Amino acid sequence: MKEFNALDGALLIDKPAGPTSHDIVDTVRQCYRIKKVGHCGTLDPAATGLLVLLLGRATKLSEKLMTDDKVYVGSIKLGETTNTHDAEGEINETKPVPNLTLEALQEAANAFLGDQMQLPPMVSAIKIDGMPLHKLARKGLEVERRERFIHLYKFHISEYELPYAWFKVACSKGTYVRSLAHDLGQALGCGAHLAGLRRTTSGRFKVSAATRLEELTDLSPADLAKRIVPMLQLAATEP
Predict the structure, then answer these.
(1) What are the distances in angstroms from CA 164 to CA 157, 179, 212?
(2) What is the pLDDT of residues 161-174, one digit of tens each?
(3) Superfamily, domain 70-201
(4) What pTM, to 2 d.p., does this model score?
(5) What Rg value do the Cα atoms of the chain yield, rounded?
(6) I need a labelling partner for 238 at 20 to 30 A (CA). Which of 134, 175, 185, 232 fits?
(7) Given 14, 23, 26, 44, which residue is catalytic?
(8) Do domains 9-67+204-235 and 70-201 have the same CATH topology?
(9) Separation CA 37–CA 29 (nearest Å)
């Protein structure tokens, strides 16, 4: 059996706003000349937080780790909907925000807990007939999407100051928090979009243990190896 090398495993990155998840993969691949690098769940360019990269032979575990639940914190702006469901898109409708209390917002959020079907946004990486939806959206096209099964364990509204609400969400894989923000706005009757998002947890991994992207270029391969979660640990069935 072939021995695992020191870079076969997971590298936890604290992604900044701006680069795509694929940009982060390319940076690691080029900096350390690693042929196989993948990730366990995309973050939108504007989002920050935990991005789990798989290096070398650990890329074989991608499907297993992709199923992990996620935790996010962020903010929602009420009274405005956008074509992307987040602050990166164009505003397509504005409405007055009703007189809401933190308790009323939490009650509305509670309605989204548990099992449900969610319609993915057009601006997403989901492919239809081999074409990512976001490429079709850039052409001004909108196509029929299939709803996807998701589960929300927690949707806690921690603070509210008109027009912003701050939240924490714990959810199953494949959940679009952008769509959740949009759907909450529809339920409230005033519209809303995601203003900011940070992923704090993916499965057993926490962003507090992650390496900042700007640190990567200063690490030697030996220093990088010290930050790798080993292949055998990843393959364990228990966290």
Answers:
(1) 11, 16, 28
(2) 999 999 999 999 98
(3) Pseudouridine synthase (3.30.2350.10)
(4) 0.90
(5) 19
(6) 175
(7) 44
(8) yes
(9) 6
Q: What is the average pLDDT score of the chain?
A: 87
Instruction: Give domain limits for the chain.
Output: 9-67+204-235, 70-201
Query: In which element (H, E) is residue 9 found?
Result: strand 9-15
Q: Which fold, 9-67+204-235?
A: Pseudouridine synthase (3.30.2350)
- Cα–Cα distance between 150 and 118 in angstroms, integer? 7
Distance of CA 129 to the CA centre of its chain: 24
pLDDT of residue 116: 94
Contact 80, 191 (CB under 8 A): yes
Reading the block at residue 218, the tokens are: 């200063």
Phi, psi (deg, nearest 5) at residue 98: -65, 165
Q: Would you place residue 136 in the very low, low, confident or very high pLDDT band (cuts 50, 70, 90)?
A: very low
Other CB atoms within 10 A of residue 30 CB: 10
Q: Is the pLDDT of residue 144 over 80?
A: no
Asked about 86 being catalytic, the answer comes back as no
